[in-house]
């Protein structure tokens, strides 16, 4: 059965289908309209199958809470006698609080997990920028001066590997579990980073860096999933974007390491590098760049040491339990008890995870997730929007500065080696600091709005760099280039930095998110590799001014792509997301034009009475009933956009 097969008689401006009985619709509101007897039967069956009789009381209360937040109204007794303890109601009030700060009051074990995941993300960023300062010195040490093609190949080697290794994510997770994949990939990252300290030729450095991609690729897909599956729904969006924010932190660390280690004597006699292994790390053998490339090996060792002190992903444990290993149900419950304040919340999430996994299994039997990702309108539009955001993350030109800023500033006579490293470090610090506001704005201002409001500035600041490189050598040139680079980092960090991974994770249909995320992540790494390998020849052929002008043009083009093809996804339930992506592409484009007209009229022409255009008109939410069969209020989503993956 096709999920979104358009009919030629569809009304313009309306979603193509509204199948209320579709399995994926039921996942959006899993227990809506269920009677008390249906809930009782489902709970009894689950307790019997899971063999969790000792925790049946918590599971029963949690199941009714999963049906509706209004299941235990204050001042009213339920007919079945179930009651909330005071401490349970206190923590539920925190969970449902309208004050966003209250939602971040979580158990310390959850933040320990997030911290470990953040270190894993920082490893990736540090790996990426360690090469920025190191290449200032190994260009001569390894005979790469004037060999732009080989320099680009060496620098881009990890990302070439990542374009393929991220596809290992699914089999590795199936074999090793979430923590096992993180342990293995961080161990590979640490070993290969150490290996980068020993090459005596560019071929050996290429091999070490290529193998580094085996540690980066699967980790980049697994860590966000692990964090999302462990986090409660009400702060899952903020925690998912931690991956990109702490990647920015690692990028900053790579720049700082470049400045700190540049002072180690690099020497001018590189012939000793070929003499003997004993002299490999002597000062005359460029010890500084070797230490720069090896420096990222430290962080993954902390992850390796602590990852198994943390709970396994509850969703992964339940999926194993549903395959026949019943003991995993208790492990999942205990894991949730460590990640939630109360056993009530753990029982609720466990019951919901199991129910949603059952729904996913039913959909997988009916659908063809991989082919329908490309053929069905709803899925194809979500994939298109996600690919656009991932593609633009590379083609906005940010990684040109991340990988090559030090050599660009040195080779074109703007700064000395040490000054170039210091300027690059400033870019890294800005990249991290200005990613911090996105923790709040990504769920308030919105994903689409962040992109639309930052891309014009990214283009303008790239043009600053273009003009700077066109000026004669002097103070004005240096100031304009550095100001343009820094302001570009300010515009990039809260928008195109964190949005692509969050957007892709939530816009994909739940039943084929693994396939969709595999595709878009691979695309992101491929274009990362493309940017890295082509820049040395690109700047030679077009000059730095022309090359930065190329990426400024893509920032301008990208703004129009976002306006027409990337709809907003913030604060939308699963069902509303389906509605958004069911609208035909021409309706999204029409809405983009309306938004542009409103902005021009409101802010440029001063017509303050204009109303902001709204794309999605929500229908009235379904009603839910209490144990007496009385309406207690509108159905409220207990889970947000990643229920199947995290619950």
Question: Any descriptors?
Answer:
2 domains; 2 strands; disordered N terminus; disordered C terminus; 647 residues; mainly alpha; transmembrane; two-stranded antiparallel ribbon; Growth Hormone, Chain: A; globular
Q: What are the SSEs and their pairings?
A:
Blueprint: H1 23-28, H2 36-50, H3 56-67, H4 86-96, H5 108-141, H6 148-165, H7 169-195, H8 202-230, H9 236-240, H10 242-261, H11 287-294, H12 298-306, H13 314-322, H14 327-339, H15 343-366, H16 369-375, H17 377-395, H18 398-411, H19 417-433, H20 438-444, H21 447-470, H22 475-492, H23 499-507, H24 513-565, H25 574-582, H26 585-604, E1 623-625, E2 631-634
Antiparallel strand pairs: 1-2
Helix pairs in contact: 2-3, 3-15, 5-8, 5-10, 5-11, 5-12, 5-18, 6-8, 6-24, 7-8, 7-12, 10-11, 10-19, 13-14, 13-15, 14-15, 16-17, 17-23, 17-24, 17-25, 18-19, 18-24, 19-22, 21-22, 21-24
């Amino acid at each position: 059965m096709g999920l979104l097969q358009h009919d030629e008689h569809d009304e313009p401006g309306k979603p193509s289908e509204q199948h209320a009985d579709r399995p994926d619709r039921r996942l959006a509101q899993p227990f809506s309209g269920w009677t008390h007897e249906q809930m009782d039967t489902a709970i009894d069956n689950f307790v019997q199958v899971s063999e969790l009789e000792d925790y049946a009381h918590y599971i029963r209360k949690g199941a009714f809470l999963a049906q509706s937040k209004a299941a235990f109204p204050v001042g009213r007794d339920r007919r079945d006698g179930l009651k909330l303890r005071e401490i349970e109601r206190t923590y539920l009030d925190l969970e449902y609080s309208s004050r966003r700060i209250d939602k971040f009051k979580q158990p310390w074990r959850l933040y320990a997990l997030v911290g470990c995941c953040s270190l894993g993300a920082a490893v990736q960023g540090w790996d990426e920028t360690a090469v920025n300062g190191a290449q200032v010195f190994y260009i001569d040490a390894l005979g790469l001066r004037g060999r732009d093609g080989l320099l680009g190949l060496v620098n881009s080697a990890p990302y070439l590997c990542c374009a393929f290794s991220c596809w290992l994510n699914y089999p590795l997770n199936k074999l090793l579990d979430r923590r096992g994949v993180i342990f293995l990939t961080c161990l590979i990252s640490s070993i290969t980073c150490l290996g980068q300290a020993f090459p005596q030729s560019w071929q050996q450095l290429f091999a070490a860096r290529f193998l580094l991609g085996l540690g980066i690729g699967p980790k980049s897909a697994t860590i966000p999933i692990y964090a999302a599956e462990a986090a409660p729904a009400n702060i899952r969006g903020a925690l998912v974007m931690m991956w990109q924010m702490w990647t920015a932190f690692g990028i900053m660390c790579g720049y700082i390491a470049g400045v700190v280690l540049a002072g180690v004597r690099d020497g001018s006699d590189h012939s000793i590098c070929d003499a003997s292994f004993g002299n490999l790390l002597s000062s005359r053998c460029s010890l500084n760049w070797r230490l720069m490339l090896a420096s990222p090996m430290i962080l993954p060792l902390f992850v390796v040491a602590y990852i198994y002190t943390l709970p396994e992903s509850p969703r992964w444990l339940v999926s194993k339990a549903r395959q026949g290993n019943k003991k995993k149900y208790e492990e999942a419950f205990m894991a949730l008890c460590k990640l939630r304040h109360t056993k009530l919340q753990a029982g609720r999430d466990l019951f919901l995870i199991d129910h949603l996994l059952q729904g996913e299994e039913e959909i997988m039997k009916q659908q063809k997730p991989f082919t329908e990702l490309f053929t069905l309108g709803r899925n194809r539009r979500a994939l298109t929007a996600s690919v656009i955001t991932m593609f633009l993350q590379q083609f906005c030109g940010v990684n040109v500065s991340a990988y090559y800023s030090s050599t660009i500033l040195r080779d074109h006579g703007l700064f000395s080696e040490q000054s170039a490293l210091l300027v690059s470090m400033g870019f890294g610090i800005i990249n991290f600091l200005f990613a911090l506001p996105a923790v709040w704005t990504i769920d308030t201002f919105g994903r689409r709005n962040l992109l639309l409001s930052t891309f014009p500035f990214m283009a303008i600041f790239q043009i600053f760099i273009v003009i700077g490189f066109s000026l004669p050598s002097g103070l004005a040139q240096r100031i304009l280039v550095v100001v343009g680079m820094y302001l570009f980092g300010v515009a990039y960090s809260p928008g195109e930095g964190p949005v692509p991974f969050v957007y892709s994770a939530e816009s994909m249909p739940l039943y084929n998110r693994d396939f969709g995320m595999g595709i878009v992540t691979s695309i992101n790494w491929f274009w990362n590799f493309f940017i890295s390998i082509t820049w040395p020849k690109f700047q030679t052929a077009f000059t730095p001014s022309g090359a930065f002008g190329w990426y400024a043009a893509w920032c301008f083009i990208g703004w129009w792509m976002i306006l027409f093809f990337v709809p907003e996804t913030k604060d939308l339930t699963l069902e509303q997301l389906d509605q958004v992506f069911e609208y035909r592409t021409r309706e999204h484009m029409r809405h983009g034009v309306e938004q542009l007209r409103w902005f021009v009229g409101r802010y440029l022409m001063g017509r303050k009475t204009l109303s902001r255009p709204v794309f999605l008109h929500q229908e009235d939410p379904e009603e839910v009933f209490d144990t007496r069969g009385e309406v207690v209020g509108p159905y409220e989503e207990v889970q947000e956009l990643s229920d199947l993956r995290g619950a």
